[in-house]
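step=encode ok
step=design start
structure_in=
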């Protein structure tokens, strides 16, 4: 069977809505640009995260409108379906004009009209399913694809930037240096982490006086000021950012990450060999974040703290102090994360198709 990806042909990528859908698309596009002189095009929602990141990365972008249906009222579902139908008309013109050799969908509702258009026009389709639980869009679109790549399967993987997958962590990273803690709630932030983690850290740090600590907190753009003010009230010096585009370079030096458990987040953290406490979003579709977090915990690569646990500030602080005080535990957990990681460089991911 001939390969689905051929560098001598143009590539169309679609998907968006969250960093977990957008970042793999950006990295696949960059890998294609390194492989090929043929054009790549990203089709996504206008005015969205994907448009901003594609522009920043120098990747041509074409706007396509679509709508979601999960969690919507009946009128919202009808509006979503109508938006998808209108978007399919636009996508037919886009695919016909661009004439890609392959269309890759990375998830989210914006991919639906593009994938449907590609199928109508006979263009091969590959879908990425990075989570342990498949999303609705991929379940619906799966029969239209030549291949669905499952992120956690041995022949699949989640495409990452080339510098995320690091060599196995060494002990020096966790011993004799300042402890480095990164708090990240995903591309859109996580309100509960912004509210609870500062309190937990403020109660944790007095229990580890022998180590200096450096903290970075990605809050999401809308919560930057409130999160920064919360740390200031608690007397903690913390770098608070809305979004961290340089996340790949940061992860490789962290002692511990506290994060949500979206597939891309888990892939990036584990690929860097970083131990993490995962706090899954309780309302993620199909409970996929909880499944992602539990898979890592069961393999010894981190800990799963569900949201209600964060209400127990003192008990969380005691557990966090125990983790941070044990460099051997941090090292062993980081090594466990590195061994189980589903993350692979995007260029390698493309070559497997």
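sequence_out=
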């Amino acid at each position: 069977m001939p390969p689905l990806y051929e560098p001598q042909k143009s590539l169309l990528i679609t998907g968006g809505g969250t960093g977990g859908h957008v970042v793999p698309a950006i990295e696949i596009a960059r890998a294609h640009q390194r492989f090929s002189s043929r054009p790549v095009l990203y089709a996504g929602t206008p005015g969205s995260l994907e448009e901003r990141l594609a522009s920043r990365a120098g990747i041509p972008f074409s706007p396509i409108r679509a709508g979601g249906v999960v969690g919507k009222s009946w009128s919202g579902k009808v509006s979503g379906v109508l938006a998808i139908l209108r978007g399919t008309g636009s996508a037919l013109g886009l695919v016909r004009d661009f004439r890609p050799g392959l269309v890759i969908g990375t998830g989210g509702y914006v991919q639906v009209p593009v994938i449907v258009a590609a199928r109508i026009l006979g263009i091969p389709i590959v879908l990425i399913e990075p989570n342990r639980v498949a999303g609705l869009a991929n379940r619906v679109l799966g029969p239209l694809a030549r291949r669905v790549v499952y992120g956690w399967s041995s022949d699949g993987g989640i495409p990452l930037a080339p510098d995320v997958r690091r060599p196995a962590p060494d002990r020096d990273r966790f011993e004799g240096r300042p402890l480095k803690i990164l708090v990240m709630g995903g591309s859109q932030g996580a309100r509960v982490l912004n509210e609870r983690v500062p309190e937990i850290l403020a109660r944790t740090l007095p229990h580890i006086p022998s180590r200096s600590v450096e903290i970075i907190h990605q809050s999401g753009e809308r919560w930057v000021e409130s999160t920064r003010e919360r740390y200031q009230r608690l007397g903690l010096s913390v770098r608070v950012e809305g979004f961290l585009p340089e996340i790949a370079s940061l992860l490789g030096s962290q002692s511990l990450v506290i994060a949500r458990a979206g597939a891309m987040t888990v892939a990036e953290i584990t690929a860097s060999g970083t131990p993490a406490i995962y706090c899954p979003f309780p309302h993620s579709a199909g409970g996929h974040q909880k499944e992602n977090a539990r898979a890592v915990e069961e393999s010894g690569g981190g800990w799963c703290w569900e949201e209600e646990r964060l209400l127990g500030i003192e008990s969380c602080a005691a557990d966090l102090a125990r983790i941070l005080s044990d460099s051997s535990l941090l090292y062993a957990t980081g090594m466990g994360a590195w061994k189980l990681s589903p993350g692979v460089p995007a260029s390698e991911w493309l070559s497997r198709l």
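step=design ok
step=annotate ok -> The chain has a mean pLDDT of 88.
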